Amino acid sequence: MSFISSTTPADSPERRTRERILEAAVSVFSRKGYHDTRVDEIVEESRTSKGAVYFHFPSKEQIFLALVDEFASLLQQKLVSTITEKGDGVLGVDAALRVGLETFAKYRSLAKIFLVQAVGLGSAFEEKRLQILDRFAAVIQQYLEKAVADGDIPALDTRIAAYAWIGAINEVVIRWVHTGEPDPEQIQPVLRTMLLRSIGVSEERIRELDAGS
Q: What percentage of the chain has pLDDT greater than the value 70?
């Protein structure tokens, strides 16, 4: 599965087994939720053994947290790569929003685990969720600061603005994960306009971005 990352060589038996376990876990967690999933079901779906599962992951919690980490790392890599490629602060943040929504759409089952099931599962899960949101906010903050430095937007508290963006994106995407509505293609232009206006991007610049979409 292409979302899984590892320092282990791609053709190693350990890597392939780990991938099969995580792929199976995505399927089972998505269908049954965290609490109703049993490790034996992941073992069966992965066509491995209980010993192999526990070798890679000492508990169901560790499997779940590994999936959250895998998805977060994938999303962060895509965001940073996209923003770096664009260079410009506003263009970069705008492109990152588009790529982020495309990634959620492509990996909807993982998005459900990351955004929905990880909420309210206890302190370990909440700590992990907050750590990941901090990582994403830091990426957004970095390029909001560049947009300020470039004169594209007025000076503002970029840290608070980044968390506000994360909150808005999170709420809209969670609703989409639950219901399938609104479509990501509808979400992106509305969110873009709203978020860029919130940090003082000019209407002229927003129209330029719209025209370039």
A: 91
Integer Cα distance of 195 and 189 in angstroms: 10
* Those residues with Cβ within 8 angstroms of residue 173's Cβ, 6 or more apart along the chain or in another chain: 101, 104, 111, 115, 187
1-58 and 65-212 in the same fold: no
Q: Are 48 and 20 in contact (CB under 8 A)?
A: yes
- Do 201 and 90 contact (CB within 8 A), yes or no? yes
**Alpha-carbon gap, residue 191 to 52, rounded angstroms:** 44
Task: Report the chain's C-alpha Rg in angstroms.
Answer: 19
- Quickly name the fold that domain 65-212 has: Tetracycline Repressor; domain 2 (1.10.357)
- For 79-109, what is each residue's pLDDT tens digit? 888 777 776 667 777 777 888 888 887 887 7
pLDDT confidence bin for 20, thresholds 50/70/90: very high
pLDDT in the model for residue 176: 85
State the Cα–Cα distance between residues 25 and 58, nearest whole angstrom. Answer: 14
pLDDT value at residue 11 = 66
What is the architecture, at CATH level 2, of domain 1-58?
A: Orthogonal Bundle (1.10)
Question: Structural domain boundaries of the chain?
Answer: 1-58, 65-212
